[in-house]
Amino acid sequence: MLSDDVFLELQGIVGADNATREPAILDTYAFQYIAELIVGDNYMGRPCAVVMPGGTEEVQAIVRLCNRESIPYKAISTGWGAYGGSPAPGMLQLDLRRMNRILQIDADNMYAVVEPYVVGATLQAEAMGLGLNCHIAGSGANTSLLASATSVMGQGATGVFTGFSNRNLLGFEWVMPDGELLRVGCLQDSGEWFTGDGPGPSLRGVIRGFAGAFGGFGVFTKCAVKLYPWYGPRALELTGVSPDYEATVPENHAVYLISFRGWQDMKDFGNMVGEAEIAFALIHTPAAPAVVGVTRSNKEFHDLWKSGLFEHMKYSLEVVLTAGNAEEFTYQRDVLEDVIKWTGGKVALCSITGPRYYMDLAVALSRLVRQAGIKKTLRGTPALLTYMATEWRNGRTPALFAKALYLGLIKQCLQARCVFRPGGSFWTSMGGLTSWDCCIENAIEGERIKRGWIEKGILMDDGAEQGWGMLYESGAYAHCEEVAFYDQSDPVCVEGSMGYVTDTVKATIDKHLAMSLNATGDPFHAWYSPHVMNYHHHVAGIKEEFDPANLSEASTYINRGITETLIKLIEEGGGENLDFKDILTLADNEEAPAGTDAGRPAE
Amino acid sequence: MGVEGLSEAVSSGSVVTQKELMEDYGAGNGRKGALPAAVVFCETADDVVGLTKWARENGRKILPVSSAPPHESAVVQKEGYVVCDLSRMKRIVRADRRNRVALAEVGVTFEELDGALERVGLRAMTPLAPRTGKSVVASYLDRTPTLVPRAQWDLSDPLLCTEVIMGSGKLFRTGCSSGPGTLEEQWATGQAQKNPMGPSAFDFFRIVQGSRGSMGIVTWASMKCELRPRVHELLMLPSDDLAPLIRIVYGIAHARWGEECLILDSNNLTRLTGVPGMPAFALLVGVAGFDYRPEQRVSYQKRGIEGIISSEGARVSRSIAGVGGRRMLQVITSPSDPYWKGSPAEHADVYFLTTMNRAPDFVSVIDETCKKEKFDRAQVGLYLQPQLGGRVTHFEATVFAPREEADRMTRALAEAAAAKGAYFSRPAGNWDDLAYRDKPLLVETFRRTKKIFDPDGVMNPDVLFCKEVV
Asked: Which range, of A484-498, A579-593, B203-217, averages the lowest pLDDT?
């Protein structure tokens, strides 16, 4: 409970209009995606208040006040789920939406300095005007760049050209858990932001890893992110009517949807295209979200999906080429065509049409028929033809689909539609950053596991294979996560989806398929850490050193006591027999409220 | 101080205490220093673990060394240290063409690695003409700039996963090599230790990198490699003026063309090639074709780069002072023996990060400081290395003079550069303290971080942020 005096003090820091204790407003912060998986309800713990600081000094003052009064706190910017909240009520929520400025774009040196509420779409639009572009994470163009760079993951469809958020972070400004302000990198010496490494070691390694602290390690108030060259127009030429937009594919750009005979061909193709350094994007979009993307309602989706044909389109990859001039584009296209040929690929959709591509499309369709079988094809064809005829009548030709695909990949603007609409909610699993070959192994294993949960009626039938995968840094590494749709209003589905994630986590451990992107928060640390060098000791060591009172809310970061209790319980109870729900229940029982050190081991 | 029990602590390593065999690690070559109490030649990670535990129990400090002598910065400064010499750890565990990754122990040198990589069609990312005997992993751990900015996605590149022994004596693996599974089990699923990040919510490799052994001792590392070029040419552009070269570098960086890309001044060009009469500056840009239509790649990139150059009214030279592109390429990419800068007694470096457009300011700083210090400007060599895809520039000034004089000048140059905003991201030499001056919170943050992983302060605790800040 926040005292009136403290609330008045908070109002004094941010202004009366920027602090509230109105329950209805507080609940809007507690109502979060996947809250039902964490607290068994759609609402996380209700915060004690919400404050909206306008700048770094205000953030600092709030964090200092929280330390003085032992109030747990967490900042969110654009937010994307329960990670932004706390399972326990009473936390002070810092909403950073007023800190929304692009502070600088250094076009020569290709970086931008942003505040927390700058989203990918905004920076991208500004950067494109200067012949540059930014990495937009898979959470979509409407999410915070700073949050992704400093605190949360960073996968994104254009990663083969624009990297991964962790590795795009340059200098940054950090209100440490105790309220001290640290400017990391060259900022203190020259006022510039071009690096966050050094002097000597890099504190980038303290604040985050493959995952991040998800708001559990102080507040990041400014950061610089790398920009990348953009060889397209200063603004994309958009057409269409909501919800269907397309972009003209500019000169020396192209988008391809390529179908393959099987996984091995996809492995070879990804490795070759990565090392050939020709692609702006290389991504495996599973069939179900792709069909969601081209339909306007769930009815349309289900009418089309029930044709039963699309689930056989799993062997496919999308590629975008962007070149600075015609000669480079010719090289990219020639190499891509070589690799398509070597790996038995067939172009199912392309922004460059011609007889060759229609022939390829015919072969791709015949493959689909072979994979689906004649009976299924005959059953499914009417629905498919009806859809195609309707679309064609409405002017939505294959060329238009290619333009829509291009827009979706360049601007990262279809995410929310593709993952939330079909089932109500979704969860994801697997997806460790590793080699492309191992990513495909993840997709294969993920499909096998998910099929079982679909057959139980727990997860939506999306054809089982739903690996969303892509390359990073010219194929230096990759990820492929296994997305699952579920109905968050149905307790049976909620519980079942936990079972699905448990199975995938166990598979990544037992089959050495790389630590999944789920490895954040105590229950997952408890699963993984004993198989991964007991890493939780070190992450917890960092957290405890810089936040001994554990006030920076860490439910998606780490609480040593909870993690170690869960590890012990798994060991004693037989880890194989405990599923994720059991662990969450145990975690609830062991939960040390933020702001106490009850979870810490005795010295 | 004795070293009782040390031999027993390192089962396969050998312990040396003879003074004449330990001089390489302390005073000498014009460097101040102290003699170590012992040198332990570790051959396995277990040896390093054993040594670390022994050091904790006996209140000793450890200086890790992995390159062959002469040692530049890895020199014992105070008495009581034990040197952990890893130069005998020379296994190249894996050279993986499909994943463009190598995994090598810390004693492997550039010349050794390159031989193994060549056999599978790869090449290592090299710094400018490293000295023979230089450890690849040590070079990468020091964030020494490599020559191909396009291939550098993070200043930590090309370093990927590492095996580290912390000051606590714990062995840890970073990035995806941490598990699940052993290396062999990971290879069986197609993994190749390619992702350096993590595990989970910290990047320990970033904390170890740049720490000069003060956060832990690395025994092996995986590293990004490049495809070995099928066709490889060097475009050379001499110029009396730095400004157009800078604009060209930006043009190339924004196009993401080219391989090697660096600017050297006449002094460094002469020292590298042994040929006098070099131009004031030269921009060197490699163009290569790999396994995919190599000639076509070289053709379009060469035409594009030449277009950028001609927009500045300049033209590529077939040779500079009689040195052709092929020879120059060989010189800058190959290990150098004898080392082109001479011995540590004959030179000293000062280097920092800036952006390419600020480079002329720092050239002026060099000119003015030499004048002020009455030092012959002709004895200072300049090397500008774009990094991180051209977003950052490594600015390096090498003072070619007897050590004492070189140290005096590098200190003066560093002070002057610091006043203009130079960022000493890799503190070294007698100017390392400048990196931490007026940054008490940063120093304290580093010290607290060290304490987490090295609670007793056994890992090289008299360098960097551990030193008293003047």
From this structure: A579-593
Residue type, A224: A
How many structural domains is chain B composed of?
4
Q: Between the CA of residue A543 and those of A66, A536, B166, B328, what are the distances in Å?
A: 17, 10, 18, 50
Classify residue B321: in a domain, yes or no: yes
Helix (H) or strand (E) holding A247, with range, is: strand A244-247
Confirm or reject contact between B187 and chain A (CB < 8 A). Answer: no
Q: Nearest-CA neighbor of A162 among A123, A118, A116, A115?
A: A123
Domain assignment of residue B195, yes or no: yes
DSSP secondary structure string, B142-174? TTPPPS-GGG-SSTTTTEEEEEEEETTS-EEE-
Rg (CA), chain B: 22
Domain that holds residue B312: 231-333
CA distances from residue B96 to B105, B148, B223, B298 in whole angstroms, order as listed: 15, 20, 10, 25
Q: Amino acid letter at A201?
A: P
A209/B197 touch (CB, cutoff 8 Å), yes or no: yes
**How is residue A159 written in tokens?**
């990663």
Interface of B with A in 72-131 (CB under 8 A): 98-100
pLDDT tens track for B332-373: 999 999 999 999 999 999 999 999 999 999 999 999 999 999
The DSSP line for A356-367 is HHHHHHHHHHHH
Q: Give the H/E segment covering residue B239.
A: strand B231-239
Q: How far is CA B372 from the centre of its chain?
A: 31
Cβ-Cβ contacts under 8 Å, A108 against chain B: 250, 355-357
What is the set of domains in chain A, with CATH numbers?
Answer: 4-95 (3.30.43.10), 102-229 (3.30.465.10), 240-422 (3.30.70.3450), 423-520 (3.40.462.10), 523-590 (no CATH)
- Residue B281, chain A, CB below 8 Å: the answer is no
Q: What is the CATH number of the domain that holds B37?
A: 3.30.43.10
Longest Cα–Cα distance of chain B, Å, equals 70
Q: Are B50 and B111 in contact (CB under 8 A)?
A: no
Cβ neighbours of residue B447 closer than 8 Å, sequence gap 6 or more: B465, B466
Taking the C-alpha atoms of residue A132 and residue A140, their distance in angstroms, rounded to an integer, is 18
Residues within 8 A of A (CB atoms), B 128-157 only: 143, 151, 153-156
CB contact under 8 Å between B210 and A198, yes or no, is yes
Contacts with A206 (C-beta within 8 Å, 6 or more apart), sequence order: A542, A546, B202, B207, B445, B449
Which of B256, B292, B465 lies at the smallest CB-CB distance from A276?
B292
Decide if A469 contacts A445 (C-beta within 8 A): no
3-state secondary structure of A41: coil
Residues in chain A within 8 Å Cβ distance of B185: 512
Name the percent of chain A in helix, strand, coil, to the closest 5. Answer: 45, 20, 35
| A514 chain-B contacts, CB cut-off 8 A | 176, 180, 186, 189, 191, 195
CB contact under 8 A, B201 and A208: yes
Q: How remote is the C-alpha of B116 from its chain's centroid? A: 20
ipTM of the complex: 0.97
Nearest CB among A163, A209, A432 relative to B201 is that of A209
- Percentage of chain B exceeding pLDDT 90: 91
* CA separation for the pair A510, A507 (Å, rounded): 5
Residues B222 and B245 in one domain: no
Same domain, B286 and B184: no
Question: Is beta strand B122-124 parallel, antiparallel or unpaired with respect to B101-105?
Answer: unpaired
Q: Which residues of A touch B253 (CB under 8 A)?
A: 110
| Residue B217 DSSP SS3 | strand
* Segment A110-144, tens digit of pLDDT: 999 999 999 999 999 999 999 999 999 999 999 99
